[in-house]
Every structure is written in structure tokens, then in C-alpha cells.
Amino acid sequence: MGARLSVYPLSYPLVTTSRQENHREDNHEYNRGMTDQRPIRIAIRDIFSTLGEAFFIPAPGRLSAWFDRLWTTVLYLIGLLHWGYFLNWGKVPFDLHDWTQTGAYFSFLRQAAMTNQLPLHIGSALSTTDRYLGRPDTLISPQAYLLRFLEPGLFTLVNLLILYSLGFVALILLKKRYSLAPAAFTALFVLFNFNGHITAHYAVGHSEWIGYYFLPFFVLLILKVAEGEKAGWRWVLLIALTLFAITLQGAFHFFLWCLIFLLAWGVFTPKYLLPAVQAITFSLLLSLFRLLPPMVEFIGGGKGFISGFPTVTDMFAALVTIKYPSEALAGPFKSLGWWEVDTYIGLIGLAFLLYFGVYRTWRPGLAARTGKQSPARTLLAPIAVLTFLSIGQVYGVINRLPVPLADSERIASRFLVLPLVALILMAGFNFQEYLSDRVGAALSSSKGAAQKGRRGPSERIFSLGLLILMAHDLFQHSRIWRVTNMYKLFPSTPVDIRASVINHPDPVYITALSAGAAATVLTLIVLIILSLREQSKKKINNA
Predict the structure, then answer these.
(1) What is the overall mean pLDDT for the chain?
(2) What's 180-225 look like in SS3?
(3) Percent helix, strand and coil across the chain, each rounded to 5?
(4) For the segment 58-81, what is each residue's pLDDT rounded down to a tens digit?
(5) What DSSP designation does 488 have?
(6) pTM summary value
(7) How is residue 454 annotated by DSSP?
(8) DSSP for residue 123
(9) 73: exposed, middle or buried (Cβ count in 10 Å: 0-12, 13-18, 19+)
(10) In this structure, what DSSP letter does residue 137 have?
(11) Which of 130, 143, 209, 488 has the most CB within a 10 Å radius?
């Protein structure tokens, strides 16, 4: 018993002390893990670092993919809100300028839809002819049937949002094709959707300008061929369908500008001349449904030419200057109207297009360094042609020639919109290429060079700041030119926009319409057959 007592006092305290010390150390480690926030801070820092990289450079990973989708969705919603605000949420001023005629056309289509009649003859003092389809600027696209359920004002907004959404789909296709990260896609998005050309024209009632949103599809199809895809019958079919969709919106002007673009593209790059001519020919044939009635209505009655940009200086001013509606008819623009030259993208936007759209596409030293040129370089010639034609009286010479369709253009400054859209798209993927090459080159070089080449926080903040300022400038233009401010430019002229369907026997008009519709259907069938045969041969050759 004594031995036991003598042993325990010697051994037990030693064991207990050791266990207590270990227990205290374990508790200390546990408590330190619970209270130390460094792992959380590191995780948060890594997340923001990943998102910062993903904003400028396409990056793999679920987090980057979700961030990209979220950013794209936010941009789309911003566009919806912009146009809702711009058009006063459907409360359109149908008592001023061209809105009066637009209101009459939409009222007529509404009446035709509600009474289940074909929209052939319009009864309205606001229309220059009772042949509704005899005017190339009238809407006849399928979405017009929504007027059966919507008043003209609300339909104006809904129609724009539908076409805006189609245009956004085209931008998404470009985004996927060229792997655009949010930074490059944001620049492309704001310049395309909110530039002064589309906003100013829509502000004064040019509802047919809705065909603008098909232009990215048109440019994308040309870029695909420039980058090596075959310009076969399927390509011709897609070009013709795109231009046909444009004519259904009443956007005849855009149709003509696209034909001029195709012709210039083929002439200055001979290897594309044949597909360009094929695309022009079949686009004309497919669109005869919309072209023949106006040709019959206005035969020999081309519009007198007014002007393009008065000078080259005025063209650059239109790109970087915001004029208030009250100033839109001052100086040399008394007969032209500032809205006809307004192509505002801001100083930052212009620098962006000149560097990334023009210079980085042209780059004479690129071929010497890499052995190849930018595929998009072939688009610079038609861009230059249309820009040249938009100046002063240059196009006036063509307008006076007895060339069908060509004599319908009396304001050549509008031509600039197609070069503008092409440059916006090209600048978008060149900007992405610039960002990707910078990092790619840095990572493939030595460690020191990589650290020097990688974009730091200050450089990213600077780029983000420029994007914000560019978007800010474009919003200022939209705020100033929203439809509610058009009363500062035009006086209110209360009119009755109600129009009725007065269909009556009209052999010449009906014959032209029927022949055009037959030609459209036949051309579509022929193009589909040629496309299917081409695809079949391709499959056989591949097998």
C-alpha cells in the first residue's frame, strides 16, 4: 500500500502535466483556427483575383463562367431599361415630325389585324400613297401582328425590344466566336446599342431604323468568309435571308447600303467578287416581294439628293459632339437636320475604333512578323467606300443616274452607320486579341518579363474607368435625345393617326405584289435546294 502511495505521487503528476500541456496546445491550435481569418481573407482575395482576370481574359472554371453569364445578363437588362426609358415606356409622341406617319402606319396595321384583312391599301391623310406596300419604309414583318393586342405606342416599344433582343443574339454569336471576355464585350455592346445614329434616328420617328439590329448578322457572315469559310450557297442563302428580313422591317436604306458594301468588298478583293455578286443577285430576287411594288409606285420619281456630311470635319464632329435638340436645325443643318448626321460615340469611343478597329486590323508590320495579315483587313475597303460616299455631294452623282434603287438615297450621311457597325465589331475582337496576346506573351516569356507584361491593378482600373466613361457619354446622348425632349426640336402638330383599311381593285399594284411574292418564294426554294445539294456533296467528299 505504501509502495503504491510512493509510486503514484512520483508518476501521476508527470503524466497529468504532459496531457494537460498537449490538451492546451490542441485547444490553442483549434482556437487559433477558429479565430484566425487569414484563410477566409485569402479565399476572398483569390475569388476577386479570379474575377478580375476573367473580366479581361476568358478563363476556364465554373466561377468565371458564372461571372461571364451574369455580366452578359446584366448588360442585356440594361439595354431593355435604356430603351424603355428612351421611348418613355411606350408613351410615344405621335404628334410630331415622322412619328405622325409612323403612328398612322401602326394604326393601319392594327386595324388590318383586328379585322383580318390584308394590309394593302391605307386610308390616311398622313400617307403619301394609299398603296401601303408601295412604300419601301413600311413594316410588314410577322411581329406586326402584335398590333392586334397592343396600342401603337406600346407596340413601338415592344417592337424595338424584340429587335434589340435579336441584335443581342448576334452579339452573343460574335462573343462566342471570338471568345470575348466581359471587358471587350461591354465595349462592343455599349457602342453598338447606344451610339448616336440609332438613338437620334429613332428619337425623331424613324421606326424603320429597327432593321439596324440585323447588321451584326450581315457583318458576321462576311467575317466568316474573310476568315476562310467557304462562300457557298448556304452562305448566299443566309445573306439573302438577312437582307430580306431587313426589308420586312421597312429598312430599305439598310438593304441598299449592304448591297453597296458587298459590291465594294468583291471589287477590292477579287477572290470574293463571285460570291459577292451571287449574294447581291439572290438578295434582290428574294426581296422582290418588298421591292417590286415601290418600284412600280415610284418609277421615274427618285428623290432629289440633299447632302451627306457637309465636310469631313462635320463627320468627325458628328462622332464626338453632342448637340441639344434645340440646336439640331442650326447652321448648315437647316435643311439636313442634326439627327441625319448624328453618329455620336464620344471621344473615347472614336479613339477605340480608330486604334482597335482600323489600326490593329490594318497593321502593315503584322505580315512581316507573323507571315499573315488580319482576315478582317478585306473589310476596310468597303468601309472606306461607304465612308467616302457619305461626304458632301459625292453620292449626288450616283443619285442622278438612272439606276433603279440607287436614286432613292437623298441623305448620304446615313451611309456611315454600316462602316460604324463593322468597325465596332472588329474593334471588339481586336481589343480582346490585344488583351489576350499581352498576357499570353508575358506568360510564355521569362519570369521577370511575365511580371512586367501582366496587367496590374492600376492598368485594369484605368481600362475599367475608360469603359465607364464611354458608357457614361453615350447615356448622356440618350438622355438628351429621348423622345420626350423632341418637343424642343419640333412643334406639336396634333393629328389623327387613325387609319383604315380601304382595299380596292388596283391591277398594277396587285400584279407587282403577286409577281414579287412569287419570285420571293421561288428564289427561296432554289436557294434551299442549292444549299442542300452543296451540303450533300460535302458529306460525300468527307466520307
Answers:
(1) 88
(2) CCHHHHHHHHHHHHHCHHHHHHHHCCCHHHHHHHHHHHHHHHHHHH
(3) 75, 0, 25
(4) 888 888 899 999 999 999 999 999
(5) G
(6) 0.88
(7) S
(8) E
(9) exposed
(10) T
(11) 209
